[in-house]
Write a structure and sequence with these properties.
By secondary structure, the protein is of the alpha+beta class. The chain has helices spanning 3-29, 43-46, 50-57, 139-142, 144-147, 165-169, 173-183, 185-191, 198-205, 218-221, 282-287, 294-300, 314-317, 319-323, 341-344, 350-354, 362-379, 393-397, and strands spanning 66-67, 94-96, 101-108, 111-114, 117-120, 125-128, 148-149, 160-161, 227-233, 236-240, 257-258, 400-404, 407-411. The model is unreliable at 3-34 (pLDDT under 50).
C-alpha cells in the first residue's frame, strides 16, 4: 500500500470507527433492513413526499380496511332499531370502506370475519351481509389481498392496513435506505469519501431505480378485477378472490382467472351488452376499450387522412409519452403504453385535493377537441344536445350504470358509449 492509499485508508477508518454507531442507530431507528423485499409502510414516504402523502390520505384507498381508532370512523347509525344489527359499536374492531358502504369486522381465532349487517352510506340504511355464511368469509382469503398492502398468501400477514404507497410502487426498503444514505449527515461522512471513486459512483447510480414507477393499467387492475387464484398451502388448495403477489410494473399473472360473462349465470355482474354492472371489474372493461388500444391502433391502423403518424401523435395515444419529461419523451417506436388509468385518474389523489373539477370536459378535450370540431363542422350542430353548463362528457359517454352502495352510482368502468 503506497503512502497516499495509507492516508486515505486511515482517514476512512477514522470516520468508520467514530461514526459506525451512528450508522447502526440510524438503521435500527428507521426499521431498515437489507431485505430487498421489505415493506416499510406509507408513513415512511411522508418524510420526503408530504404533498403526495397528504393527498393520498384523503382518498378512499387508506380507508379500505383500517383499525378503529375513533368512534367517529364508524358511520353506521346504531340509533336505528334494526333486527339486522345484533352487535354494538364497541364490538367493532375494523371498518372497511367509507363512501358507498361500510362493512364491519372483528378478529376471531386469529382471522378477520365480517359482522352480518353493513351500513349503506348513500341510502342511510342497514342491509344484511353474509348472514348465513359469514364463517365461510374469512377476509384473508376473500378481501385482504386488495384491502391491505404487502399481503402474503402463505402466512396471511400484511405490512399495512388499507391500500398504501407500496401497493403501487412495490416494497420501499431499498428506496428509503438509499435516500437515507444520500441525505443523512452521519452517512455522508463515510459515503462522501468515495466521491471520486468510479466504482462507488456506479453503485449509487445503479440504485436510482430502487422504487417502481409504472404507468400500466395492471397496477390498478390488481384490485379492480374480479376473479380468483388458487394455491396449494399445507396440502390444501385455497382459492383467493384476488391476484396474488402482484409486482407493480408487470402484467397480472396468468394464474389469476378473471371472471367471465359466461360464468355469470345469474346476470349479477354484466349487462346484456357485455358492459359491467358491478364493482371491481373496471380493469376488464377498460382493457377492451379503444383507449387501452390507442397506441396499438396508432401504429397499426393509422389512417392516411390524418397524415403520417409521428411522435407528436403520442400526446393523445401514449401515457408514458404524456408523463415523460419534455427532454426525455419516447419516440413512436419507443413508446410502450397506450392510454392507461392514470391518464385520467391521478393515482395519488392530487387532482381531487387541489383541483375542484376532476371530471370536467377538460379531461376529454385534451385529446378530443379536434374530433368535436370535425363533428360539429359536418353536422352543423353542437356536439351535445344539452346546455354545456348542465352536462359533462362523462354523463353521456360514461353513464352511471354500475350498482353499488344501494344505488346506480358508479360509471361504466371507463368504456365509452362508442365502444359498446
Amino acid at each position: 500500500m503506497n503512502k497516499s492509499s495509507q492516508v486515505n485508508f486511515n482517514h476512512h477508518f477514522y470516520y468508520v470507527s467514530n461514526f459506525l454507531f451512528l450508522h447502526n442507530d440510524s438503521i435500527i431507528k428507521n426499521n431498515i433492513t437489507n431485505d430487498s423485499d421489505h415493506y416499510v409502510t406509507s408513513k415512511k414516504c411522508l418524510d420526503c413526499h408530504q404533498t403526495y402523502y397528504d393527498a393520498w390520505n384523503d382518498t378512499m384507498h387508506p380507508k379500505m380496511f383500517k383499525v378503529v381508532d375513533k368512534e367517529e370512523e364508524i358511520l353506521g347509525n346504531f340509533a336505528i332499531n334494526s333486527p339486522l344489527v345484533s352487535f354494538s359499536k364497541s364490538d367493532i374492531e375494523f371498518v372497511i370502506g367509507s363512501k358507498w358502504e361500510q362493512v364491519y369486522a372483528r378478529m376471531i381465532d386469529g382471522e378477520y370475519y365480517p359482522f352480518t349487517a353493513k351500513w349503506m352510506v348513500l341510502t342511510q340504511q342497514w342491509v344484511p351481509y353474509k348472514v348465513n355464511n359469514w364463517k365461510e368469509t374469512p377476509l384473508s382469503v376473500k378481501c385482504n389481498g386488495c384491502h391491505t398492502t404487502g399481503f402474503n398468501p402463505q402466512t396471511y400477514e400484511f405490512s399495512e392496513f388499507g391500500i398504501g404507497c407500496e401497493a403501487c410502487h412495490g416494497p420501499g426498503n431499498n428506496h428509503v435506505q438509499n435516500k437515507m444514505i444520500e441525505s443523512s449527515i452521519q452517512c455522508s461522512f463515510c459515503h462522501n469519501l468515495f466521491e471520486n471513486n468510479d466504482s462507488e459512483k456506479e453503485n449509487i447510480e445503479s440504485n436510482v431505480s430502487d422504487i417502481i414507477v409504472s404507468y400500466k393499467s395492471a397496477v390498478c387492475g390488481q384490485c379492480h378485477s374480479r376473479g380468483s387464484q388458487s394455491v396449494d398451502n399445507e396440502h390444501m388448495n385455497i382459492k383467493f378472490n384476488f391476484p396474488l403477489e402482484y409486482i407493480p410494473g408487470t402484467d397480472i399473472g396468468s394464474n389469476f382467472k378473471p371472471l367471465t360473462k359466461n360464468q355469470d349465470k345469474k346476470g349479477k355482474y354484466w349487462w346484456g351488452n357485455n358492459i359491467s354492472k358491478n364493482r371491481h371489474q373496471e380493469y376488464a372493461d377498460f382493457a377492451r376499450s379503444k383507449h387501452a388500444k390507442s397506441l396499438k391502433n396508432l401504429k397499426e391502423k393509422h389512417s392516411e387522412s390524418c397524415g403520417e403518424a409521428e411522435d407528436s401523435c403520442l400526446q393523445c395515444h401514449s401515457t408514458d409519452y404524456r408523463m415523460a419529461d419534455k427532454d426525455h419523451k419516447p419516440s413512436l417506436s419507443e413508446a410502450k403504453e397506450g392510454l392507461t388509468c392514470i391518464t385520467c385518474h391521478n393515482p395519488h389523489g392530487i387532482d381531487k385535493k387541489h383541483i375542484r373539477d376532476t371530471v370536467g370536459a377538460h379531461k376529454c378535450e385534451e385529446c378530443h377537441a379536434n374530433s368535436l370540431s370535425r363533428s360539429t363542422a359536418k353536422t352543423g350542430k353542437a356536439h351535445f344536445p344539452c346546455p354545456a353548463d348542465k352536462v359533462k362528457c362523462a354523463d353521456c359517454h360514461m353513464p352511471k350504470i354500475v350498482l353499488t352502495g344501494g344505488e346506480f352510482s358508479l360509471r361504466s368502468g371507463c368504456r365509452s358509449s362508442c365502444d359498446i
